[in-house]
Amino acid sequence: MNLQDKRIAVLLSGGVDSSVVLYELVRQGLHPDCFYIKIGPEEQEEWDCSSEEDLEMATAVSHKYGCRLEVVDCHRDYWDRVTRYTMDKVRAGLTPNPDVMCNRLIKFGAFHEKRGHDYDLIATGHYAQTEEETINGESANRQLTWLCTSPDPVKDQTDFLAQIYDWQLRKALFPIGHMMKDEVRRIAEREHLAPAHRRDSQGICFLGKINYNDYIRRYLGEQPGDVVELETGKKIGRHRGLWFHTIGQRKGLGFGGGPWFVIKKDIQENILYVAHGYDPASAYRQQFLVRDMHWLTLPYTQIALRQDADMQGSALSVTFKIRHTSDYFRATMEPQADGTFMIRSETPIHGVAPGQFCVVYDSRHHRCYGSGEITL
Fold first, then answer.
1. End-to-end Cα, the chain, rounded Å
2. CA 225/CA 241 separation, integer angstroms
3. Is the pLDDT of residue 44 over 60?
4. Looking at residue 116, what DSSP letter applies?
5. 102 in catalytic set
6. What CA–CA distances, in Å, run from 218 to 92, 98, 221?
7. Which H or E run includes 368?
8. Which is the most buried residue in 116, 311, 323, 360, by most CB within 10 A?
């Protein structure tokens, strides 16, 4: 892609990755405009948040390269769209991923509505790549854009991008997506970028140092209920709210006689079911349904018809992941009559939870097809 005639917006977060993005573009003779998206929880002044330091770092990097930096306030947009989505899912006993929806609704959504629509491309520090493909259509050729994985399996962030829309993907630019994290760090150190030695952010993008359970408690409060051993039906303790626990959780439970694994939640009766042991069989699943499947580039029917589709009978051979790790699992994916898709994994998977995103890739885990919400 020739970038010389493109208007480019760079989203600076104050971290090392987006800082190297700006360096890479300037190195190519470009002069992009920089933006810092301001988001955060309600009544932000009461929280121990790192946003002030983030903005200082972003300002230092943009000034280093003589680029204009504009702060775009998406605080209300984040609350109205992402936080509300998160709390609704948590209240329903599900395990949502706010960062996934932040990319779709804020970084490539609300920002686009406020400022990004003035630009041809929006550059971010995600570890991901895109590929262009031309296919023959009935009346004209069609240009496709695929979301593809980074060569760094640990830092790959395609799972966080698998819910964005196709038009957002076509505007996305990932200048460091082909790099390993170590290389990005070396560039930042060599170029004396202010965030060169900053640690990578952990957890949900806007929380900073805020504890996730404290955040949930702030909006949902507590709803105590019984904790029951799944195999025996024996009550072993009390929980303070099902929304403080996730399927597969084994740390921080605080119940005596452990170790314990969280196996399932009964929302109607407000019961948390656990199993005893270090690795109980009941903590694993080998097949599950995915609903509301969001296809990034092509729908299932068109992917299945392609000559390069890896099919097993009526099912598509895929790889997938259910959380942000470097592990991909082989499986088949088959449409069901109700619009859901059945995922049948070759190996049992630990901690499959309703509400998690199942991110689906081709059999080589190179192209990301999209993602959907796990339902059991």
1. 43
2. 7
3. no
4. G
5. yes
6. 17, 16, 6
7. strand 367-375
8. 360
**Under DSSP, is residue 146 helix (H, G, I), strand (E, B) or coil?**
strand
Distance CA 194, CA 25 (A): 17
Listed in order, strand segments (DSSP E) in 3-43 are 8-11, 33-38
Of 148, 205, 358, 368, the catalytic one is 205
3-class secondary structure, 326: coil
When pLDDT is cut at 50, 70 and 90, the band that residue 209 belongs to is: low
Q: Is the pTM of this model over 0.85?
A: yes
The H-or-E segment that residue 185 falls in is helix 181-190
The pairs formed by 113-120 with CB atoms below 8 angstroms and a separation of 24 or more are 114/72, 114/74, 115/9, 115/35, 115/70, 115/72, 116/9, 116/171, 118/7, 118/9, 119/7, 119/8, 119/9, 119/33, 119/171, 120/6, 120/7, 120/8, 120/171
The residue annotated as part of the active site, out of 102, 148, 358, 368, is 102
Give the span between the Cα atoms of 70 and 114, in whole angstroms.
Answer: 12
Number of Cβ atoms within 10 Å of the Cβ of 100: 22
Q: How high is the pLDDT of residue 281?
A: 86
337-354 pLDDT tens trace: 999 999 999 999 998 999
The verdict on whether 49 is a catalytic residue reads no
Query: How far apart are the C-alpha atoms of 291 and 280, rounded to whole Å?
Result: 27
